[in-house]
Fold this sequence. Notes:
Layout: E1 8-11, H1 15-26, H2 35-41, H3 50-59, E2 63-67, E3 70-78, H4 90-97, E4 100-101, E5 104-105, E6 111-119, H5 128-140, E7 146-152, H6 156-165, E8 168-174, E9 180-187
Parallel strand pairs: 6-7
Antiparallel strand pairs: 1-2, 2-3, 3-6, 4-5, 7-9, 8-9
Amino acid sequence: MDYTPPIKITLARKPTELKQILALQAENIPEVLTEDELKSQGFVTAKHDLALLTRMNEAAAAVIAKDGRKVVGYALAMTREFANEIPVLEPLFTRQDKLTYRGQLLGETDYLEMGQICVAEGARGQRLADRMYKYMRVCYHPRFAYCLTAIDARNTRSLRVHQRIGFEILDRFIADDGHDWILVIWDWRPKEP
């Protein structure tokens, strides 16, 4: 009987893992996907380079799903200091910092931006996004009250996944570049009895 070890969820620590994240990202940007794939499988919007990803990972390590030595999923953690490093994301930080959530101005809170989540085509359907997000919460909830992210409104698969995990819709807006964004938030604070 063959034994296949389970996919492991952990933090990215090695340069080879970061390179695999970038390779997986390149396979899932809209430019390389068909319209059917965009609608049914989802996509990633932002593009990173190794230098930026390395700096982001040093500030808050990405959560990865590994099948043996191969990265088959990732969830990038992004602290506020990187708000201006990725042009497509700049308006998101500006917008969400001005929003109020449960009576608190988000710009005055400590939150973690989930920079991007992706699961390789052959690893989908195993709820790896759920597992990576749960691991991210365990790792980062002591430092951050909330996890926020923005979803391209065309990416209905991603929105469904985020809502299943526990994210709430916070806002929707169209950026100056024409992107239709849905901002979502996951409250990591302990629940009051």
